Write the structure tokens for this entry.
Amino acid sequence: MFRIMALCRPVARVRASRRFATPRLCLEPLEDRTVPTIFVHDVPHFTFVTPRSVDVVLIDSAGQGRNHISGTSDGVPFEDVVFYNVPDVVIDTARNDSGGAGIDRVTVNTGGGGGAAGLRDFTIKTGQANDAVLVQMPFTLPVSGGRFEVQTGADADTLTINGTAASDNILLASNSVTINGDTVFHKSVEQLFVNALGGNDSAALTSIGAGTATTVDGGADFDRFAATLSHDFDGTLALLDFENITVQVHDSFKGDLSATGPGIIQSIFIGGNLSPQANISAEDIAFLTIDGNLAGAVTATGTIHSLTVGGSISQTGAVTARSSEVLQGTDAQPAGFPAPAVPCQPAISGGDQFATGRIREVY
């Protein structure tokens, strides 16, 4: 293992010596440069530790398959570091956080160059305080079978991942974001922002973490979003600037979903219940089907074209829209079935165009 504590004073070049079975480090003076740089290469592991509490760190490209680390710690610049041919690299801004007072800002932007030659595992640790990490894609690990992970600590940490100006394929899961095949894993992140930027982007979600509030921005052009969950929806998801949105939840919907600008949801299917704490809001909803009970809130600033409830609307359930074309239920009580226990009309509200019929249980 090779660990560097970043220094806030000039040093010399560091290189691995091949004269020993275990890599050792040698110093070489840089007489031709006014700003010294540390070179790390041909060692199995490298941990970069910032010396103080409040850190601003940039990881970018040094060209020729090399990555470059620069920045400040408590406002004091530390020595630049260039690394390559190191399989496992850790950026540690957490170790000297002074009891959580150090707010760190870490940016990864290699201009499309990706990870340095030989890089397999790349980890960023920010620790306590309200830290922020920004990753500009693409960032490809050149050695397969590895992992790029952002690990934050307590408090309100933010991870922002930017796509490209072209058309991106984005896959979101509860602890990872994959853009065009490059994956960023995350741990203990409270706020996740994914910006698709330009192009006709396509985003898909297969699971969502309850502890991470996720915002996905489709950006310009025509963008699609599709969520397909084989279990409960138990998180917070905000969708911005998607022209086509579909959501399928196999079990119950227990979280929060909002869609704005244009905020048109083509279809939502919920195989279980819309739970009391759940909230769905959009500008327009074309088709909403709830196989179970509606106990949460559904709000459209525009139109709900079709709403179907397979169970009942409880007293906590609420549907609000400017207008609705179809409210599917049973206006006439089928023979042999009891009347619904809870009248539904008080839970339905809207403008003059909103349908006046009540939704009853669908038998």
